[in-house]
Amino acid sequence: MTDTTALEAAAFRRLLAHLRERSDVQNIDLMIQAGFCRNCLSNWLQEAAEAAGTPMDKEAAREHVYGMPFAEWKARYQREATPEQLAAFEAAQRRHG
């Protein structure tokens, strides 16, 4: 019998590795295209940890997802959102809101 949880965990680890390799992809672009971003993943991880009885604060969850402290990732990779990105984000929010 296949252990679905192990498969899902492996897929999640692969997703995290992929997102860490693609530091050029901004969170706002992920939100526009997919409706979620690295911060969403960290929130979901934190919620899952707490539901399992394992306290995890926001910063620990973000560090797990980003592979480094969030402030460090932000300083290294996050760019200021362009007016075009902000407009696309607002339009996406209206479509999916």
From TrEMBL:
Pfam families given in the database record: DUF1244
Residues annotated as domain SMc04008-like: 25-90
Protein name: SMc04008-like domain-containing protein
Source species of the chain: Arenimonas malthae CC-JY-1
